[in-house]
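Milestone M4 deliverable, item 7.
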Amino acid sequence: MVRFVLEIAASQANVMEQTRAVTQAAAEAVPGVKSVSAILTAQSTPSVPPALKGGKEPERPQ
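Output delivered:
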């Protein structure tokens, strides 16, 4: 079994579907490969990274 995920920009889904299909076909053509799972994934909205409080130690109970 071969599995892979292509993470793409949501706006490129239609264009990248052809890439996914070509890469899946190439993997299926490899001798010994019995099945292939190839998917596209994209975030619908950009995620905001978490606010990190670097350099501060957690407050300790008194």
